[in-house]
Hints:
Two copies of one chain form a homodimer. Chain A has two domains: 3-169, Rossmann fold (3-Layer(aba) Sandwich); 182-274, Pantoate-beta-alanine ligase, C-terminal domain (Pantoate--beta-alanine Ligase, Chain: A,domain 2, 2-Layer Sandwich). Chain A is built from nine helices and ten strands. The first copy, chain A, has helices at 8-15, 31-43, 71-80, 91-94, 113-116, 120-135, 147-159, 189-210, 216-228, and strands at residues 3-5, 20-25, 46-51, 85-87, 101-105, 139-143, 165-169, 233-242, 257-264, 267-274.
Amino acid sequence: xxxxxxxxxxxxxxLKGKEVGFVPTMGYLHExxxxxxxxxxxxxxxxxxxxxxNPTQFGKGEDFERYPRxxxxxxxxxxxxxxxxxxxxxxxxxYPFGYLTEVHVKGISEVLEGKFRPNHFKGVATVVLKLLxxxxxxxxxxxxxxxxxxxxxxxxxxxxFLDVEIVAVKTVRDKDGLALSSRNTYLSEEERKSxxxxxxxLLLAKELIEKGERDAKKIKEKMRExxxxxxxxxxxxxxxxxxxELNPKDFVEExxxxxxxxxxxxxxxxxxxxxxxxx
Amino acid sequence: xxxxxxxxxxxxxxLKGKEVGFVPTMGYLHExxxxxxxxxxxxxxxxxxxxxxNPTQFGKGEDFERYPRxxxxxxxxxxxxxxxxxxxxxxxxxYPFGYLTEVHVKGISEVLEGKFRPNHFKGVATVVLKLLxxxxxxxxxxxxxxxxxxxxxxxxxxxxFLDVEIVAVKTVRDKDGLALSSRNTYLSEEERKSxxxxxxxLLLAKELIEKGERDAKKIKEKMRExxxxxxxxxxxxxxxxxxxELNPKDFVEExxxxxxxxxxxxxxxxxxxxxxxxx
Lengths: 279, 279
């Protein structure tokens, strides 16, 4: 049985004494979320999924209002997956009247995504800390699709001595390679084709590296050129090659990350790949 | 027996399963700290005192280097008071290499003390959150002497859903009324006399209010004038009258706070009083 909980106080009662695996989400669940939930299901006696579209991580003019929401559908999915509790709080629960506290992970919040979404990671860090403190899980599950978010959460957990294990789960892709995202629902059929430019540019990078190319600048240049050849691509926010800790690299090695953000029509998509891994 | 612990990992082992009362301090313990420790001793089966002079809450040119330290003396006192664990971490323990996370309680951090010590409360909030996460106490004890700090911690605990009860303990004063502070050791004999201006100005305010004065501006003006009449007083940073939540008041009521910060020689002292309480 899956219990729907709306209030922090009720959740605390329900979770007392439980060893919890926690999957924080913004809802509109897809196979990417299911991979997190199934992993949590395997590793924990009790599984909590939170569904909360966090307003503080959206900037002005971003897609907070139109972000897809369907709690009933999400609940059905969670039931099917054997989730014990779905925590779907209101804004007033998460940000009670007069709240003033925010968490900032410096450095990591200002690069890549942070350059284009200035207060995004302050919102992410704050809400993740709140949720971790509310749920107090033994393990919490995050997708590699949002790699920078994953690194931010890992850093915060270490810096603040939180007693939780952060588990990273590989990106889930559609049959054609598109990384799953709730934002894919924004795409028209035409845009969907151009959205493949992200995955395919990573494939291109993989090929180049496998042929011996190590020069990050050259790889990025070729990726850019390739991405911009897709009809519905409006602009590239960034294509970057970094080490595991998001420090830019000039020469590429195994274990490095290639990360990118691309606008397809009015939809902003991100993707990333660890050099040396399958794709 | 009092155990001295230096490492987070060791502390976690020692505290496993314990119901802890926690007294965070910067050491150089005086009767003010003892009031916190004794209260914690009464209310908890296990008492932890931390001794850590937190570098991030000191500004440039402030007294971080000369802040008084005497761990041996503090240990003796803690033994006498029946403290179970003294946690005295190194900087590397609290701020491990590459730390990037900080906590900010907006608003409350920018007024009063915050105006004169710009990053002070960011440092306080961050270290208190770290310590609370390391020690994970049932109850934590803070002195009213640092009233703004107390309010900041209360706010942070609420906003971040920390599972700890914050217990406020009344300011302890010397026989002549001077609020106890480790910084009092900086004062020369002459300065010690002028340091009484803080307490005595609060007494003056109390008298005025008891005689029916309600105009905050007039009370503050008279306090200022009085304080500046002391020989070794160099300047006043602020004299303010606020409600319990540190919002400025024009007309004074019971339950309001009068707060002040005064430089006596090269020593900055603070004090406060709740209107209607004994002094």
